[in-house]
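ok so heres the complex, two chains, lmk if somethin looks off
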Amino acid sequence: MELRRSMLFIPGNSPGMLQNGGVFGADAVILDLEDAVAPNEKDAARILVAHALNNVDYGASEKVVRINPLDTFGHEDIKAIVPCEPGALMVPKVQTAEDIKKVVELVAAAERTGQKAVKIVALLETPQGIHEAYNIAKADQRVVALALGAEDYTAALGAKRTKEGTEIFTVRSMIVNAASAAGIQSIDTPFTDANDEEGLLQDTIVAKQFGFKGKMAINPRQVDVIHGVYNPSDTDIEWAQQVIEALRKAEAEGSGVASLNGKMVDAPIVSRAHNIIFLAQLLGLRKEIE
Amino acid sequence: MKNAIGREIPESIPGYQTPILFAGAFNTKPGMNRQAPCVKAIRPSETKLTDSLEAVFKKIPITDGMTLSFHHHFRNGDGVVNMVLAVAAKLGLKNLKVALSSVFPVHAPLVDHMKNGVVTALDTNYMSGPVAQAISRGVLEKPVVLRTHGGRARAIECGQLKIDVAFIAAPAADDYGNINGVQGPTACGSLGYAIPDAEYADNVVAVTDYLVEYPLTPVSIPQTRVDYVVKVDCIGDPKGIVSGTTRITKDPVGLKIAETAANVIKAAGLIKEGFSFQTGAGGASLATAHFVRKMMEKENISGSFALGGITGYMVEMLEKGLFKKLMDVQGFDLEAIRSIAANPNHMEISANFYASPFNNGCAVNKLDAVILGATEIDTDFNVNVVTGSDGVIMGGSGGHADAAAGAKVTIVVANLLRGRLPIIVEQVLTATTPGETIDVLVTERGVAVNPRRPELRDKLLAAGITVKDIKELKSIAESIAGAPDKLVTGQRVVAIVEYRDGTVIDVVRQLED
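and the predicted structre for the whole thing:
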C-alpha cells in the first residue's frame, strides 16, 4: 500500500517551487498544470513540468501531475507528461467512468514500452462525479484513489464553503465509502487557508475520522500538520503492540480467544492494530517494533 | 604565509600593520594594558552646547589624518556621518580615517570623500552598497579593516583602533552630554555599538536633534565622557532606522530550514530550563525562533536570555515569560525600542559586553545556541559573510564570528542553492568565521555536522535527524546547479578581514574590471 497521507500541490509554472517540491517530505507532490496555470501559460508549464519530472529529485515523494480536463488541454498534457514517467496523473472534474476510460486509452497510447504503468487519481468535484463515484473508482485498474475537490463542488451546488465543512458532510462520506467499496484510497479536499494552522488541524482530524487515507495540501507548511494527524500516536502504537502481544499470548496458551483489558480482541481490532504497526514501521516512528 | 585555516596572507600589506596570522579561534592571547583616553577637566561655568559641527571641528581642533568614529544604530537612515564628513570636506581636511561600525547604502557620499582624499582609511564591521562596491574596485589605497562587532570593541579598548573624535548620533541628549537611544523622533533603542567609542575616544561629540532639559534619563552614555553637544535639525530618517515589525517569513523553504534548525537545537538537548539563544532578524533565522518558541511553549520551558540584535518577536517572548531577560546591543524594530525603554528585564549592553574576546567574559560565551547565515560555506565549515559570488564586498561579520565562537552550538542556516549557485564550495572566497566554531549546517536538503563534533552528530542521529556529510550536500547542490567557476581576483588587497582577536583570518583582493 502506498502512503498518500499528504499530496502537496506545486504550481507547474513556478521553477523555484518545482525545484524545491521534494524537500517538504510530502507523500506525493502534485505538479499542477490545471488551476495554478493561466490558459496562456499552459504550454510553458507543460514543458517545465516535463523537465522537472526528468531532472528534479523528489526523493520519496510520489510524482503526480494534475492534467487539464480532456475538453481543454488534457490531450496535449497526457502526450507530453506520460513519457516522463510520473507515478500518477490526477484527472480533474471526472464525471463518469467513461471519462476515466478515455484518459486510460490516451495514457496507454502515450506510455513508452517498458514504462511502469501510470496510475490515476480521480478528482471528483461535481455533483455528477460524486454521484458516479463508485463506477469511477471501478472504471480501471489504474485508478488508485478518489479525491474530493470541495471548492468546485460546493460552487456547483451554490452552497457556501465553510471551515466547519457541514456542506460537504455527505459527499465526504460518499467518496470514502465508494473508494473503500472499490478497494482504493480516498483523499480529502485541501484546507484552503494556509495561515490557519489550527483550522487545518481540526479539518484533518475530521477527514481522518471520516476514513480518508490522506489530504491534499495547497502549501508546504500544511504537510507536517497533516502528517501529525495521520501518523499513529505513541498511545496508538502502544495499544497496537498490546493487542499483538495479547494475541500471541492467547496462541501460546492454546486459547482461541484473545482479550485485552477485559475486551475481546476480534478480527477488526487485530486488523487495526496491524495497520498501526505497519504505518509506524514504515515511518520509522518506533524502531523497537518487531 | 598561510594562517591556521590555510588562507594565504601576504607577509606585508601596504597601509596595514605587520599581519598577525590567525592561529585558531582561542589561541591568540592579549599582552597589553587597556589604552587610556586623555584626562579632562571642565569648569562649572563652561558649556558643552556648541552652535554647529563646524565650530566643534575648530574647537577640538580636528586636523588632517585624525580618526573619526561613528555608530551604525541608524542603519540606512543615518544622517550624521554624511553631515560630519561634509563639514570635513568643506574645511579642506585630508587623510581622515573613518571608523564607522557598519556602512550602509545611505553612506554613498563617502565614495566622493574617498576619491577627493578627504577620507583615506576605513575601519568597519560590515558594509553594503556603493561604498562597498567602490572599495572592492580599489577606491582606497589603504586596505579597509573589516572587524567583528566584538573585535571592534576589543581594538578600541586595546588601542589598536585609536579614536580621536567620536561623533555620537544621539536620539536624545541634554546640554551636558547625557545620551540615550530611546527618546526623540529618531529613537533607535540600544546604543550598544556607540559605548566603546564614547569610553575610549579622546574627544566625544553628541549630535542630536532632540535636546531635553538637564538631566536626561535614562542615560546610556554619560556626561562624564562627552565634550560637546551639537543640536542639528535632523540626525536621521526613522524609516531607514527601524521597520514597523519584523515578521516571520512565509517562504516554505525558509520555514522548512528553520524547523529543521529548531529540531537540531532540541536534539542537542538545549531546550530546557535556562535556555539561552541568539538569532538574526531575517528569513530562516527569525523563523527558527518561532519553532523554538513552539517547543518551549509545549514543554513549558522558560529560557534565561536572548541576545544580540533584538526584534519585536524576541520582545514578545520576553513578555510571555519564554525568556527572563533580553540583552540588547541593537534594536531592530519599534517594539524593541518600546520594550527597552520600559522593561527593566530588557537590558542595554555595549559591544564590549556583548562580544569582545579580550575582557573578563562577554555575553556570547553564555549562549546555548546561535542561528547564523552564510553567503558561502566550505567543506571545512569556514563561512564567508563578506563577499558575494561576484567577489564584491556585500556584508561583513558583524557579530557572526563572535557569536559562533561563544555559543555551545552554532548553527548556520542557508538555502543549499542561492539563486542558481550552490552555497557549499570547496573553499570560500573570503573566510570570515572559522570552521572550528561552526557546528551544524542546516539546508532544505539536509543537515551536516562538523566532524569536530562527533558527540553532537550522535545526538542528532539518536533524535532521528538524518545527517549527511557536507561533501554529499555539496554534490547534491552541484547535481542541480553545476559547480560554479572559481572567481579570479586581482592581487592587491582592498580589505583585511580581522578575526575577533585581531589576527588576520583572510584578505579581500581587488576585482579586476
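quick notes: The first helix of chain A runs from residue 15 to 20. thats all i got rn
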